[in-house]
Fold each of these.
Amino acid sequence: MALARIARSGLRRSVGGNGSFSHEKGMFSEEVSTHKFSLLHHENAVAHGNQPYLSSIKTLNYISIWSRGIRTTPHQQFPNAASILEESESEYEEPRYAGLEATKPGEKPRVVVIGTGWGACRFLKGLDTKIYDVVCISPRNHMVFTPLLASTCVGTLEFRSVAEPVSRIQSSLATDPNSYFYLASCIGIDTNKHEVYCETVSNGGLPQEPHPFKVAYDKLVIAAGAEPLTFGIKGVNENAFFLREVNHAQEIRKKLLLNLMLSQNPGISEEEKKRLVHCVVIGGGPTGVEFSGELSDFIMRDVQEQYTQVKDYIKVTLIEANEILSSFDIGLRQYATKHLNKCGVSLMRGVVKEVHPKKIVLNDGTVVPYGLLVWSTGVGPSQFVKSLHLPKSPGGRIGVDEWLRVPSVEDVFAVGDCAGFLEQTGRPVLPALAQVAERQGKYLVGLFNKKIGKQNGGKALNMKDISLGDPFVYKHLGSMASVGRYKALVDLRQSKDAKGISLAGFLSWLIWRSAYLTRVVSWRNRFYVAVNWATTLVFGRDNSRIG
C-alpha cells in the first residue's frame, strides 16, 4: 500500500509537471484534450447537496507520463507494479457512466427530450415513433395543466385533475422496448459526444444516491422550463410558497387549512388569529390574480359556513409593484381591480424588501404580517439552463434561431420557457406562456416528422443538407384570467397595443371554463374536471386536510 501511494504521488507530480490544467466552473479541462461538457456550477451543486457526487465526476484527461516522479519498472520483474500502475491510471480516467449508448446503423434515431412541460409534452404527443425512438428525462412523470392549478389549492379541483401522466401522452414510453421515461434530473450535456448526463430522483431506495447515468442522443430537445423569480430577495425561498407544481398546490392547501384550524384553538390572541388567517399573494399577474380570486371564493362560501369562529379575521392581500394584469386591456384591469376589492381582496402597491417567517417588509418600511405567503412574480432561467455552455438569448434563456435550433452545436433544439430567440434573428424573446411552449412543440413535431424524418436526417450529424422549410412564427391567441365568483376576463387582442375583443363578467367566465376544459390533455382528465366543478357547485369545496 505504501508503494501504491508513492506511485500515485509520483504520477500526480508528473502530470503537474507536463500537463497544464485549468479550473473552470467546477470542472478541470486539460489543454491537450478539451471536451465541451456542461455541468452545474460547483457552488450550485453544493447548495443542493451534490458536492460529493460532482467532485467524483470532474473530468481529468490523464496523460501517461512515465519518466518523472517514479521510474517505470518492467512488469515481469515486479508483478505488483502492474497493479499499482493500473490503479493509478484508473484514478485519472474519465468516469464511465451506465446508460444508453449511441444508436447503431439500422436502428431508429433516438430523440431525447428533457422536461415534461407544455412544450415537451406537445412534442412527445405528436412525434412519429415509427421513425424515432424517444427518451424523456424529467424529475416529474406527468404534465401539469397550469391554468387550473390555482383551483386545486382550495379544493375546487382535485390534484389528479390537473396532472396527466407522460406515458399516457406518449404511449411508446410505456410500450416500446427502445423508448424510455427516466425519472431524473439532467445535470450536463456534452454536445461533442452527443450525450446527456443525469442523476436519478429517488428517496433512499437505491444503493448509490444520487445515481448517475448517461443517455446518448441523435437529436436533443431541451424543454426544461424555468424557475420562479425571487430577485435575490432575502427569505423568499425559505418562507414563501410557489405555485408551479402539483406538490406546491398541495403544500399551499395543507398550510391554508392548518392555519384555519389552528386559529380556532383556545388561548390564541386576536393579533395572532389575524396573522394566521392572513393570506398574502405577491405578484399581480394571471396566476396571482386567479389564486386571489379562488381564495376569495373559498372565504365567501366555505369559510363563512365551516369556520364561523374566525370568518371575520380571514383576509387576502395582493401586493404588486405596478398594475395588476399589466398585459391585459386597461378596461379589463380596472374591472378586475373593482371586482377583487368587492370580493374582499385588498390590493396593495409596493416592492418587497425582505421576507421573514411571519412577516414581510416592503421598501417603504411597511410591515405586513402573514400566515400564508404565495410568491408569483414570474419566472426566469433555471440553474441548469444557466450552467449550459450554449448561446444565450436576452434574459439568459437558451438562444435559438428561427427553426428553434441551438446555433453553434449540432442536433440540439430548445422550446418553452427555457428558450428565446437570439438577438441576431431580429425577433423578440417570447413570453413565458403555456400557449407559446405548446405552439413551439407543435412546430417541432412537423419539423421532425415531415422534414427531418422523411429526408433521413434523424441520425446524429446528418442534417446539414436538409431543408427545414418555413421558420416558426408565433401568433398570440389572447389571454384569459378568472377573478372569482363566476367572473373572468377574456382579452383576444394579438398584442398589448393591438385592437381586439375584450370581455369581462359571467359570459367571460363561461368562455374561460369552456376553453380550458377543451384544452385539458385527455378525455379522462376532462371528465375529472367537469365532475369536480359540478360537485363543488352542489356540495362545496373539499376542506379536509390530509397529511
Note: The first strand starts at residue 21 and ends at 24.
Amino acid sequence: MTDVQAPVRPKRKKNIMDLLVQFRWIVVIFVVLPLSFLYYFSIYLGDVRSECKSFKQRQKEHDENVKKVVKRLKERNGSKDGLVCTARKPWVAVGMRNVDYKRARHFEVDLSPFRNVLNIDTERMIAKVEPLVNMGQISRVTVPMNVSLAVVAELDDLTVGGLINGYGIEGSSHIYGLFSDTVVSYEVVLADGQVVRATKDNEYSDLFYAIPWSQGTLGLLVSAEIKLVPIKEYMKVTYKPVVGNLKEIAQAYIDSFSPRDGDQDNREKVPDFVETMVYTPTEAVCMTGRYASKEEAKKKGNVINNVGWWFKTWFYQHAQTALKKGEFVEYIPTREYYHRHTRSLYWEGKLILPFGDQWWFRFFFGWAMPPKVSLLKATQGEYIRNYYHENHVIQDMLVPLYKVGDALEWVHREMEVYPLWLCPHRLYRLPLKTMVYPEPGFELHKRQGDTKYAQMYTDVGVYYAPGPILRGEVFDGIEAVRKLESWLIENHGFQPQYAVSELTEKNFWRMFDGSLYENCRKKYKAIGTFMSVYYKSKKGKKTEKEVQEAEQEIAEVETPEVDEPED
C-alpha cells in the first residue's frame, strides 16, 4: 500500500456531455482516423518531394520565403492592424492549450512553407532545419545516416519550432538537456523585418538565450541549426520492475541513471536513454537504453522487438509486462524506439479509443493510428473542449530531481492519475538568467544527479482521466490545475505552456523569470508587434483592448536589469 491516501469524494451526477464523450470514438473512427491518414500521407508525399531536391535548392527556396515574410511584416500598419500571429489555424497546434489569442483581431504571417530540412552536415554534426519540420521527418532523414538530433521528442508530430519556442524533452535529456539546449543558432525575423542569426557568443546572444519558452513572441523563427550526435542501429532496452511506495519508486528511478558516487558525466555509468512509467501507487517499470550495433542486436539469443509495426502491443502496455515476468532486455530499432509512444499517444489512445489496444483493432486498423491531435481538437467543439479541461488532465510538472517523490505523492493525493511518465533532464546554469533556471546554490548540496554546471530536473508527465472521474466522483479539474501550479511555484518547478494554464499574470512571473525576456522585448521592438508570452498563454479569449493595454503597461515600465554572467 502507498503511504499517501487520496481524499474520499462524493459521487457526481452524469450529464449529456458524459454521454457525448463516452461515444466520441464513433467520430474518431469514421471521421478523424480517415482524415488523419490522408493528412499524414499528403505530408509524407510533400516531405519526399522536398528530399528529392538538393540542399542548395532548398536553401534557395528558404531565402525566397524569408523575403516574403519580411515583406509581409513591413506591410503591417501598427496603428490599424492587430498584433502579429502566424496564419496557422488555432486547432492545428499539438498542445492542449486553447489558442484563444487568435480570436482577437490579428495580422497573419504565413509560415507554412517552412517545413524543410535544409542541410545535414555530418562533419560539423549540425542539422539546419525550418521550424515546421517535425520529429518523424527529421528522424527519417538522419537515422539511416547513423546520426540523430541529440534530443528527439517521442511524438512524430512535434515540430522544431514548437519544441524551441515552447518546451521539448526526451529520454536523452539527462545528458543533453531540453531540446532548446541542443540548438546552435536561430535565424529570426524581428519585428522591424530585420533577419538576424543569434548564437550564444555573437551580438545577439541575449536573444539566443531568451527565445526558448518565449512562445514566438520575440520574433518569427525561420530556421535553426541543431546539434547532431552519432548513433547506432539499435537501442538495447532494459525493463526493470519496481514495487514499493511512491518514495521508493522515486528513488529507484533516480538510481536508474544517476550514480550515487556523483559521477554523472561518466558515460559508462549513465545510460543513453531513461524513462520510468508509474502504473499504480505501488508499481512502476524503469527503462534504460543504450545504443547497440546491428551486429550485437542480431547475436544468437538476443530478442529484437520491432515496436513500430502497426499490430504491436502499445509500448506502455508492453513495458508493463515486466511487472509479471520480471526484468528483461530486448533490442529495438533506433528510430522505432524514438517514436515508441506515437501510435498510442502515450496512453491517451486508450481514452480516445477504448478498444484501440485490443489485438483485433491493432491488426486490422492499427495502421491508421494515431488520430491527429489537431483533428481531434477540430472535431470536439467548445463544450467538449471545456469538458476535457474540467475532467481530464494533460500536464507536465518540471521539478528538481530530489523532489520527485514529493511530486508523485502530490499527484496521487490531488489527482490520482495513472500511468505517470518520468523523464529526467538537465537544467543548465547559463550565462544569462532565462525564463527557466536552476535553484540558486544547487551545486553546493551535491545532490544525486547534479553537477557543478547543471541541476537535474524531472518531467512528471500527468496525462489521463483522474481517478475520481473514472470512479464517477466529483473532481474539479480547474482547481486541481491551480493547486498544481501553486505547488510548482513553491518548489521551484515549471509548467510547460502547451498545457492549459490557470496562472494569473502575477503567478506566471513568480514561476518564470521575465528579466531577460522583457529586456529583449524592448530591445528588439517586439512590444506592440507580438503579443507577450503571458497573454499568449493565458486561458480565455483576449480582447484587442486588453492586449493593447497590457502591452502599453509593459512599454512604460523601466527596462529590468539582466543578471550578469556567472563565473
Note: The radius of gyration is 23 Å.
Amino acid sequence: MCGILAVLGVVDNSQLKRARIIELSRRLRHRGPDWSGLHSYQDCYLAHQRLAIVDPTSGDQPLYNEDKTVIVTVNGEIYNHKKLRQGLSSHKFRTGSDCEVIAHLYEEHGEEFVDMLDGMFSFVLLDTKDKSFIAARDAIGITPLYLGWGHDGSIWFASEMKALMDDCERFIPFPPGHIYSSKQGGLRRWYNPPWFSESIPSTPYDSTILREAFERAVFKRMMTDVPFGVLLSGGLDSSLVAAVANRYLAKSDAARQWGSQLHTFCIGLKGSPDLKAAQEVADYLGTCHHELHFTVQEGIDAIEEVIYHIETYDVTTIRASTPMFLMSRKIKSLGVKMVLSGEGSDEIFGGYLYFHKAPNKEELHQETCRKIKALHLYDCLRANKSTSAWGIEARVPFLDKEFISTSMAIDPEWKMIRPDLGRIEKWVLRNAFDDDKTPYLPKHILYRQKEQFSDGVGYSWIDGLKDHASAQVTDAMLKHANFVYPENTPTTKEGYHYRTIFEKLFPKNSARLSVPGGPSVACSTAKAVEWDAAWSKNLDPSGRAALGVHADAYKDAVDTKIAEPNNKSL
C-alpha cells in the first residue's frame, strides 16, 4: 500500500515549494518505504511513496504515458491489468506495474474509464496537454484518500490527512466511488450499482454462484511478486479467506516464486478465543501458522501511535486497530509485505449480532447498504492504515466489486436470521461453503458465532481499555464533555480519552469532522439502534452489547474478572 500526495495550482512553484512537497510526502513514507518519486509540471506536483508489490524492480512512480504528457500517482492494485493491457495493444508500456494501465486508459477513453478498473485504488492524474487533472477513489473506499483546499487556491489530494494538516484551510475524506474532474469542476459518482439505491432485490439464493464469486475474488488478490499471507482470526470470514487461498495457492504465480505453503497470522492475549480457533483452522488447512501475543499494557502503550496512524477517535476502530497495528509490525519483521483479510463480510451479509433483531428483510437490506456505504470510515480505514503503518498492504476479497454485486442482489429474506429454520447470522455464506465431499473448514468453525476482532483477541482487552480510560478521565471531565467537544461529543470515558489524544495530534476542525458519530450498539448504525428499545441504554460497539444474542455476553473468557452489565457499559 503506497502513499500519494498531489498539489495542483500552487502560487509559489519555486524550489522552496518543491522542498515543502517532499517534506510533506515524507509523512507518508511508512505507507511506502521502498521508493520515493516526485514529478513537477509548472505549478503542479505529484508525489509518491512506494510499497513495491507488483514489479518491484521497475514499477516506481509516478507513472507516465509514452510521451510523458500524462502523469499519474496511484495507491492500490489493479487486478485486471493484464486483461486491460490486451485492449491497449497500440500503447507502449514502460513497466510491469499493474497501475500503468491508468495512464493509457485515460488516453483511450478520457475520464470515463474508472469503472473499467477492477481493484482497490486512489489516484491523481495530470494531463499536461491542457493542464487538467482527475482524481478517483475505488468503489468502497478500501484505499484512503483526502481532498483539501489551500489558502492560495490550490487543490490537494493525499492518502492521509497528516500530509494536509498544515497547508490546507479545509479538507474532507474523498468519497468512495467518486471522481474529481478539474474540467467539470467537482466531484461526481462513477460507481452506481443497483444496491446503492437501497431498493429490495429479489434474486433467488444460489450457493454455487456465491461460492464461485468469492473464490474468484480471493484468487485474483493473490497477484503478487512478494511474499504474502492471510490474517486468520479463526472466525468465519478470515477462515474462508484462508481456506480458499490455501486451495488455490498451488495454481498461482505466487506459488512458483514463494512456495505452496500458505502463511497465516493471528494475534491475541494469551488464552484468547481467536488464538485457539485460528490454530485449529491452521492445523486443519496445514498452513505455516504464526501465533502472536500482546499484553493489555502493550496495547495501551501503543494507543497514541495507533491514533496518529489511523486518524480517527472512533472507539470501535481504535479497539480493533491496536492489535492489528501490533500484529502488522511483527508480520513485517518476517519479510511479508502483503496480507489477505476478511473485512466486509458482516456488512454484506448482516453478520453483526445486532442483525438478530432486524424486524424484516427490508430493514435488514437497508442496514447492510448503509453499512457498506460507511465502510471507508470504519473497517476499511482500520485495515488499511493499521497495516500500512508498517509498510504492509491488506487486500480484502469480500469487497470485490463482482462479489458485492452478486451478494447484494440476493433476496434479503435469505439473510434473515431464522433460528426456526436453523439459520444463524451469515447463513447464506456458511451454507455456500458447507461441502461434505471436499470440506473447506470443519463444521464447528464454519458455524462459529460472530466474534468482533476487538472482542476475539481477548475480552479483557476492552475491559483493560475502559479501566485505563477511567484512570485518565474524571467524572467532571466527562460531565462537561459537550462544552469541550461540541462536535461528536464523547459519551464515555474511553471515548473522551481517545478524543483528547486525537485533538492533540490533529487539532483542525476539518480533522475532527472527518470522523463519524452517532449512537451505536455492537457496531450498528444509529438507525438500527431503534430495533430494540433496550439498546439505547447500552450503547457500546462491543459484540457483547447485543444483549440476549451473544452466547458469552458479559463473560470474560480470558480473565476471571466478570464485567457486570449493571456497573459496566459493555
Note: The CA atoms of residues 132 and 305 lie 38 Å apart.
Amino acid sequence: IHTVGTFQVGDYVVFAFLFVVSSGIGVFFAIKERKKASSKEFLVGGRQMSCGPVALSLTASFMSAVTVIGAPSDVYRYGASYVIFGVAYTFVVFFTAELFLPVFYRSGITSTYEYLELRFCKLVRVAATFIYIIQTILYTGVVVYAPALALNQVTGFDLWGSIFATGIVCTFYCTLGGLKAVVWTDAFQMVVMVVGFLTVLIQGASRAGGIESVWSTAHTGGRMDVFDFDINPLRRHTFWTLTVGGTFTWLGIYGVNQSTIQRCISCKTEGHARWALYLNLLGLWIILFCAVVSGLIMYTFYSRCDPWSAGSVSAPDQLMPYFVMEILGAFPGLPGLFVACAFSGTLSTVAASINALATVTYEDFVSQCFRDLSNRAANWISKALCVVFGVACTTMAVAASYMGGIVQAALSIHGMCGGPMLELHFDNFKAGGLIVGITLSFWVGVGAFIYPAPSNNTRPLELNTAGCNFNLTADGSNQTSVTASALTSDRYWLADSWYSMSYLYYSAVGFIGTVAAGLLITLLTGPMDPKKVKPGLTRSVKDVICFCSEKFIHADFSEDKEDLGDFGMAWEKHTDMEGVIKMEEKVKSDNDNLHENGYTNAAFDHNETSQVQAKL
C-alpha cells in the first residue's frame, strides 16, 4: 500500500478535541442531572427534549462513518445512483412520523418491544428484543471497525487505539449523562461531520479543476447515469432496489427501531417528535448530497489513475481516506478534521446503540424480573448495562473485519433483521411468521456472503490506470479477473439467483416471508379477534392519508408535554394484557368520542382530551 502521508501533531490535536468535548458533555449532564436519579430520566431524558437537538441526533446516528467513508467509495465505483436513497429516506420519514410515531408516543412506553407484548404476547416481545440486541451489536461492530481499519491502513492512524478510544469514550458519556448526553453530543458531532465534508468538497473540487470539470468527467465516465429502471431484483442498485428495497430497509431502521423511537418519545410533545423527524430528513438529504458529490469529485481526481487498481490501496473503503490525505495532507490539522468527521459518525452511532441496548434490556428483562426496584437502584442498573454493552460493541468490532464492504455489510445486517420486525408492527395476523421471516432473510444474507454476486449483477463501472506513473504489479487486474472467472465456473445453482439478490431486498424478503407465514398460520388456527386489538395499538389508514389535518397544521409547540395519563402509566405498570385492557376500558368510558374521531389516545387524561377535541 502506498502511503500518501501520516498524521501530524495538529491532526491528533483536532481529533482529540472531538473526544474531549464529547466526554465533557457527558460530565456536564452527569453533574446537572445528579439530583434526578431515575431510570426514566437516564433512559429517555425525562421526556423533555426539543425537536432541534433530537433531529441532529437522529441524523448523526444513522449517517455514521459508514456513510462518510463508504458512500463516496460506492459512488466512485458504481455511480451517482446512490443519490436515489433520498427518495427512500422521504418515504421512510413520512411513514415513521405519521404511522408509527403517534402509536408509540401516545402509549407512554419506553421500549418499542413492549408494544409487541400488548399486541401479541410476551414471547413475541422477548424474541424481538433478542433479535434487536444481536442486530445492533453486529451493526455497531461494523461501524467501529471498518472506518478505523481504513484510516489505519492509509494514514497510519493507530487501529486498536482508535477502536478502544471509541468504545471507552462512548461508554463513558453514555454511562454518565444518559440519553441527554447522547443527544447533545450527537448534535455537536453532526456539526463536525458537516464541516469535515465541506472541507473535502471545497478543496477536492478545487484540486479536481472545478465543478464543471467534475460534472463533465463524471458524465464521461458513466457516473451520472442515475436512473436505471431495470426491474431485475438481482441487480445491486437500480431505481427500484434503491426506492422500494431502500424504503423497506430504512423503515426497519427508523420506523420500529428502538434507537430512533426512544429519542422521539423523549421529546416534550408529539409535535416536537414529529418535527424532529422531518428536520432529520433535511439533515439526511444534506449528508447524502455531500457523500455523493465527494464520490464524484474523488472519481474526477483519480479518473486517469485509480489508486485501487494501481495497488496504492488494498480495498475500496480506503479510497476516501487516501483521497483526503492527498488533497489535505499539506494543511496541518485538516486531515485530523476529516478523521474527526468520520469518527463523529462512529461515536454518535455507537452511543445511540449503547443507550438503546441498555434501555430495551432494562425495560424488557430487568424491570420484568425485579418489579420493586427503587429509582436509585434502577438508575445504577441502567448505567451498568451501558458499560456492559459498551464492552460488547467494542469487542464485536474485531469480527467485523470479515464482513466485506462497509455500506453493504451494514445495510445487510439491518435488512436481515429489520424486515420481519417491521412486519410485526403492520399486521393483525398471528406473530408466528417471525421465525419464517428471520430464517428467509438470514438465508439469503448469509448465502450472499459465502457466494458474492457476480459482476454482471453488481456492475461496477470502469476504472482507469492509463495516467499512472508507475507500473501495475504482476498480481494486478488480471489476478482479479482470474479470480472472478474461477468463482463463476463452479458455483452453487442458488448462487446466481437467490444469493445474488440485491442486498437492499433482504428486508423485503423478511417482511413478505413473515406476512405469508402469518397468513398461513392464521388460516390453520383461525384469525385473531379484531375486538381484542385495542384502538390505541393501531393507526388507521385515514389518519395516515389525512396527515395535514387542522390538528397537525396548528400544532402548538409552546404547550407543555401532554401528561401520559392513566393508560400510559398502566402500560408501564401492568405487563399482563388483562390489566391493560381494564385500564383502557376505564379511560374509554370517560369519553367514547375519542374512537369515533379516529384519534384514540389513551395517554391523555380527561381534561386534555377536551382540549384536543376543541382543536379538532
Note: Confidence is low (pLDDT under 50) at residues 472-489, 548-616.
